[in-house]
Amino acid sequence: MLIDTFNRKHDYLRISLTDACNLRCTYCMPEDDYAFLPSSKTMKEEEIFRIAEVFVSLGVTKIRLTGGEPLVRKDAPEIIRRLSTLPVTLSLTTNATRLHTCMDAIRDAGIKAINISLDTLDRNRFQLLTKRDEFERVRANIELLLQQDIQPKINMVVMKGVNDQEIPDFIRWTSEQPVHIRFIEFMPFSGNHWDKEKVLTWRDIVSIVEQHHSIVPLGRGQNETASQYQIPGHKGTFAVISTMSAPFCGDCNRIRLTADGKLKNCLFSASETDILTPFRNGADIIPLITETIRMKKKELGGQFTAELDQVEASHIQNRSMISIGG
Length: 326
Hints:
The protein has helices spanning 45-57, 76-83, 103-108, 123-130, 135-147, 167-176, 202-210, 276-280, 286-294, 321-324, and strands at residues 12-16, 62-66, 89-94, 113-117, 151-158, 180-185, 216-219, 226-230, 237-241, 254-257, 262-264, 273-274.
């Protein structure tokens, strides 16, 4: 069992399959000429599976595959199928542009819910934000999930002055279809030009929704990152991930493994532990894993607090979101 000094049990592993992506969202990727990792530096299919087995032996019960965009890996379907043989709940975060190419593996793995990154419902704004014309493909693949009875959880990073005017449109979507919208506060990462003036807080977002609807709080479950809400009569629900204004670090159970085999005990941790190199050398990686979890800070990687006015993004030591894996 992986427990830190604050008695938090860690049983949820997020594995980044790649830092590559076929979109170019600026809050995630720092620049157009970003240098993706060479294949020799990234975990191979067999390494991903064997390292995951180690984590399962230490009590991990949930694995989420992330990126970059995990489905740009040609062997993503086989990775999904192999990991589904482990005694874990398996899930996936994707931009949905390639979901149609992996549906057989997703069904075979028994995946019941998929997180989809989608920051706008406007085709022109989608192209502006992602620098790619893939909006119709994304929407078609979300419909495909609904047809397959797989729950789409839509992750929208809300940025003031960029897409915040679309909050009512996303809420309207929940009235029509059983989608779960998750509004995410804009977070600082290397190269993403974070500015506190662009942050729309959890309270701001809920207030905007309440201008048009009565809402029923559903609370936040143990280890959950989102405060959830229901609007009576709507087929779907919505939630807010309040990392910046109301962190949920107190019962965090997440561990992150980057595509190049570095272990992060927090999304905002300044330090990382290389477990891929020792693994390739035949060393026992369990002591490295347990010590990394033991050293986890109380909140937000120990780098800042929920006081937005005090956050100095330039002082935060971290990778870009695309190279962490979210």
